[in-house]
Amino acid sequence: MNRRNFIAGSTASLIITPMLGFKGFARTGPTKPAWLLDWVRINDQQLANYKPLKVTDPANRFVGGYMNDSEMPNPHTTSGFLMKASMLFATPESTHYGSKELVQEIEAAARALLTMQHDDGTIDLLDTNFHSTPDTAFVLENIVPTYKFLKPFKGTESATEAIKTFLTKAGNALSVGGIHTPNHRWVVSAALTKLNELFPDPRYINRIHQWLAEHIDLDPDGQFNEKSTNTYSPIVDRSLIIMARGLNKPELFEPVRRNLMMTLYYVHPNGEVVTEASNRQDKGTIGNMSRYYYCYRYMALRDNNGEMAAMCRLIEQTCPKEQLAGYLDYFLEDPMLWKDLPASKPLPTSYAKAFPYSGLVRIRRGNWDSTLLSNNATWLTFHKGNAVLQGMRVAASFFGKGQFQTEKIEQEGNSWILRKSLEGPYYQPHAADKIAADGDWNKMPREGRQQSEVQKLDTTVRVTETTNGLDIDISLTGTDHVPVALELIFRPGGTLSGVVKYPKKDNAYLLSGESASYTVGPDTIQFGPGKAEHKGVQLRGALPAMDAPTVYLTGYTPFTHRIHLS
């Protein structure tokens, strides 16, 4: 869905020759900075990756379009080619500038895109959504720039007419079509804003106002409803910037500002972003901050904000240039973004900060940080550079429901407390007047039976900062002699020491000694002491093991143990 993911594949070159006698963007104007010219070179190289994805069979109804990696012609890949090709065609510093052969490729792709569009103006996301208004809006992030890049040039009339037809039909769909998720409202509204700049239409503005009447879904923490830090939050920020500018609604910059300032506290020391609190498909994924770069740079320049400028510089240091170059079209359209950033102000690197509406606590002290999570079986992470404890979990074989997670995180002094209480009852016979005559068990539900021999399990986790890390005190009490397994789940790619391989399970280790470590390059997490009273590492009712190096501590209730991370 996100066209800012880069196409990988063949590096074969498209055949190009300069196109003579056309009228287009002049070579004069503001001087492009060196980093922007570098982005142009990167996009020049990436364009060839589309060649093996092109539909060349003249009998195929989508000839001239582009396929995904499953060899399905689709509008998302096709629109990605159209944007990149037209952008480079219109950029004087590109090796593809003014290529007549490239115009032919663009025309063929534009015709194929029209074939992929339904009569109602929508397109399909073949993975899941059909006749999809939201996906039509996402595709317009490519197609509006395509039209704007091509329009000034002679010799592109056929392509621009096809693109205009696509955009007009898409506008009809976006003016009436529905959505699935909160961010879709703002993606649709941003697309309508861009369409209205090209082809003013009161229907577009009216629809935008209908969506805006629902208010921006920003909580008091500064987070959007989906909490999707690796995918949808930067998309929403980008959409709101487009709307604020195109609709002359500066008040829409405020939710962007608040979200970006909050996100400063969601960054690991190595530049990755915290994703564990997301309620979308990016939950728990590994992601950097590249998707936020445009938003931070735009707002840093607009607000003269030194912290946002510092975040831009951190993103430049920690994210591949190839990812940042995926937003070249935004930067070519707006020379304001070429200005030097304001002076940096220090980013937050030492804090303990709760985000109750997102259900997490962030602790960072220089080169290490930790995230505590509610409503999540993986309730703690610990990063030290590139050495990552990506999850801590604890479970007991308690009536098949002993996987621990807390509903809230409470602060007590300098500690953070996570709690959960469970009961495991048995049930007495039904009262005589409630017994089903036919003996049907389902007609005699548990709710109508008296409970007896009720077993209890109380779990408390206390997380306390130390001078160089965290102490995690774990207590499971109530019913005695219940097997317990604590998991320390590390990101693959490092080296464990001080642990014993568990022979019956891949990626499983036991810790019984005083200390152990996990090392990635120069970064090491120290942890311990251990506890290994049994070898039940996959308890009934616990979540399946993750496909990652996992160290287990085991015991029985009453289970009380302190483990130190540093």
How would you describe this protein?
The chain is α+β, with helices and mostly antiparallel strands and 566 residues long. It has 3 domains: 1-24 and 31-198, no CATH class; 215-348, no CATH class; 350-565. The protein has 13 helices and 19 strands. The protein has helices at residues 34-47, 75-89, 100-116, 133-150, 157-174, 182-198, 202-212, 232-246, 253-263, 293-303, 306-318, 321-324, 328-333; strands spanning 123-125, 129-132, 350-355, 360-365, 368-373, 380-384, 387-396, 409-412, 415-427, 451-465, 470-478, 483-490, 495-497, 500-501, 508-510, 516-520, 523-528, 550-556, 559-565. The strands form 3 sheets. It has a 9-stranded mixed beta sheet with strand order 3-4-5-6-7-12-18-15-14, with no helix packed on it. Strands 8-9-10-11-19-17-16-13 form an 8-stranded antiparallel beta sheet, with no helix packed on it. β16 (516-520) and β17 form a beta hairpin. α3 (100-116) runs parallel beside α5 and α4 runs parallel beside α6.
